[in-house]
Design goal:
Blueprint (H helix, E strand, L loop, with lengths): L1 H26 L14 H10 L2
């Protein structure tokens, strides 16, 4: 149970971090190929997390 909660928290934290990076790139009109349009397909990530067991 603890491992599941930690995994879910990590998934949400990582998704939030990528969303923050995307927001900052758009706000400062930064250009770069490495972080160009970062995104996470949350339904696929949650499905993979749930079905991994």
């Amino acid at each position: 149970m603890i491992t599941s909660a930690a995994g879910y928290f990590g998934l949400m934290a990582g998704t939030g971090l990528i969303a923050d990076v995307d927001y900052l790139l758009k706000k400062f009109k930064a250009e770069g190929e490495f972080f160009a349009n970062p995104e996470v397909n949350l339904p696929i990530a949650v499905t993979q997390w749930c079905c991994w067991w």
